[in-house]
Amino acid sequence: MKHVRAVDGRFVDEQGRHVILHGISMVCKEKEMNYIGDWSEKDFIKLQEWGFNVIRLGIIWDGIEPEPGRYDDRYLERVREMIKLAYEHGIYVFLDMHQDLYSSLYADGAPEWATLTGGHTYEKTDLWSDAYLFSGAVQSAFDHFWSNAPAPDGIGLQDHYVAAWKHAVQQLRNEPNLIGYDIMNEPFIGSDVLGIVHAMFAAFADLAAEQSEGPAPGVEELMTIWMDPEKKLEALQMLNSAEAYRKVMETTAVAQAHFEQNILSAFYQKARDAIREVDPHRLLFLETNYFSNMGVPSAIMPATDAEGKPDAQQAYAPHGYDLVTDSDYVHAASGERVDVIFNQHEATRERLGMPMMIGEWGAYGESDLAEEASLHVQKRFEELLASDVYWSYLYPEMDRYSSFKGVCRGYPMAASGSILRYSYDHEKAGFEMEWEEDGSNESPTLVYLPNLKAENLRSIELSPSGSSFEWTELNDAGAGVLRIATAGGGKRYIRI
Questions:
Q1: Is 428 found in the same domain as 303?
Q2: 400 belongs to a structural domain
Q3: Does the N-terminal peptide bond of residue 396 adopt cis geometry, omega within 30 degrees of 0?
Q4: Residue 468 belongs to domain spanning
Q5: Count of domains in the chain?
């Protein structure tokens, strides 16, 4: 396999083909399992049959550096085994330094020795992610990290983190299907979230006043409602329109811009410099702060090289989740809220001039509207020509969920030239694509289709007339890859 690069805002392989990366996250958060899932070759065979060409593979700081300055290379060798399994099945990998609630003490991420809480005690919340908003321990731990507070050995926490990244990269960089490094999962602002939460609920209170005839609830009352399972659904309904949702989210943009421009981007620069010492070429995946994944405009800045120019090999890697994710209200998902999120992400991608990888989305489980929600996101990805990684791998049950329709879908894996548009229709097993073929590139265009029927194969419309193609089946259900031979360049079209 060849490396994937960033070129003119697109992902491109070494054959010069425009690549759409589409896959899944595989992250083991269990310390008892040494942060490696119980995955085997059968899992990777299934991923290949589902058409995934990339895996976002989780690595955990606690697994890499269990004690200050001591690295567990046995753990990294187990990570290497997973990368090699992916290689054997034609799947790219990028590494994701994963954290939730900062620490392995509360969820996963930092080792205990790197968790400094200023005396705060962690208390679990009903919805795990609410601890970001209400746990002083989680917020203080992030504060200490962003200030590069000294660890027990006197070395700064950030300095330890980037050194751990450098060590992991040095150990794994030679794997041929390894394409890059996701520097931190969902970086969180720390205790400054208190002002953000207050601003969001103040805007929410104004919205409530506009939508009701009675007196507007106060901020404290709204926060109480938000934590009440019976009342939260009613509150969510006030945020169903794009205009209302955008208004509430954007109230926090100034505070988050300060964090992203002055703290997060500086951290990414430090990590970039360390990684580039041992790997000058692979992609750096830059995530937004936690709240930008819900539709707040991002102010993230590119990492730069020694000359002060943007590093050429980096990608914008936000996540996209509706407010109801991971809760009991998945049935209340809103397509309008989701559109706000991805419109904001696309605006940031254009500003940065980078290719975009939606590093997480979904997490639907099985709910009444899961299929509808996943298909809505699929259409947005097609419109944006975005790459994506679904959260997360659950086998054997995930392909039984209705939401799987939006996950396992037809798409162009690689196009000889530039993809102009494409779409996949699950009901008709129909696919359309238009692309501008590069006449100097003889590598075939590759299209994955999950259930191509024989009659569809016979009725393929492909320009120019008489163009040749080859169908390689991956399983008995009709999944496979269509290889379309080049035709000398120019605009091309396929309809199935």
A1: no
A2: yes
A3: yes
A4: 410-496
A5: 2
Task: Give the residue from 360, 386, 409 where a domain finishes.
Answer: 409
Closest CA to 413 of 342, 478, 472, 456: 472
CA dist 339 and 495 (Å) reads 27
Q: Which token pair is 393? A: 């791998």
Count other Cβ atoms within 10 Å, centred on residue 437: 19
Does a structural domain hold residue 258?
yes
Tokens 């943007």 found at? 310
- Type of residue at 327: S
**DSSP H or E stretch at residue 75:** helix 73-88
What is the pLDDT tens value at each position of the chain, 496 positions in all? 668 999 999 999 999 999 999 999 999 999 999 999 999 999 999 999 999 999 999 999 999 999 999 999 999 999 999 999 999 999 999 999 999 999 999 999 999 999 999 999 999 988 899 899 999 999 999 999 999 999 999 999 999 999 999 999 999 999 999 999 999 999 999 999 999 988 988 898 888 888 876 676 777 787 787 777 677 777 788 899 999 999 999 998 999 999 999 999 999 999 999 999 999 999 999 999 998 898 988 999 999 999 999 999 999 999 999 988 877 777 778 999 999 999 999 999 999 999 999 999 999 877 777 899 999 999 999 999 999 999 999 987 899 999 999 999 999 999 999 999 999 999 999 999 999 999 999 999 999 999 998 788 888 999 999 999 999 999 999 999 999 999 999 999 999 9
Residues in the chain: 496
Structural domain contains residue 1: no
Strands 283-286 and 314-316: parallel
CA-to-CA separations, 378 to 73, 332, 382, 406, 421, in angstroms, rounded: 39, 18, 6, 6, 13
Q: Could you write out the DSSP letters of every residue in 171-196?
A: HHTT-TTEEEEE--SS----TTHHHH
469-473 sheet: strands from edge to edge: 4-7, 10-13, 18-19, 411-415, 445-449, 480-484, 469-473
Contact present, 122 and 94 (Cβ < 8 Å): no
The Cα 400–Cα 397 span in angstroms is 5
163 located within any domain: yes
Does 181 lie in the same domain as 47? yes
Tell me which DSSP letter residue 260 carries. I
